[in-house]
Specification:
By secondary structure, the protein is of the alpha+beta class. It has three helices and seven strands; from the N terminus they run βααββββββα. Helix 1 packs antiparallel against helix 2.
Length: 158
Amino acid sequence: MKQNQRIFFDAIIFPHRSLTPQIARNILLVVAGLLFVVGLIFLSMDAWPVLGFLGLEVLVLGLAFKFSFLQARAKERILLTTDELTIEKISAKGKCRSWHFQPYWISIDVIDQDYGRKGEIALRSHGQEVRIAHWLSDEERYDFVRELRASLKRSRLA
């Protein structure tokens, strides 16, 4: 972005996570404690292999939490300045891709949920298309599009 560019819209979209790392750790500790007690009961009945499988369950749950928190690092940034609309997508692995559009020629379409797929927003210009905002709820998606369209209109009049 150039120094004298005016910013009309700047948004960062990221996946919603209702589970904090602290709560996930607490859940893992409670489950591990409960399964340890269950394992001791099976151990007292000479069914010692069950203890290993219960430990494996705790390990799988911990890995699932870790994978979930790694996925939460993904995000999308949409930046509208006087001269361009920039989309940056950062994957959970940190890989960054970006697209640049001329704001006067951009079209915005809302793609509703279809056949179990979440809805998205499609930004199109000169044969190029980028789909964004699949983490947003339907209401958030329509609010986002309304704000982006209003910002595009303001940028065109500036």
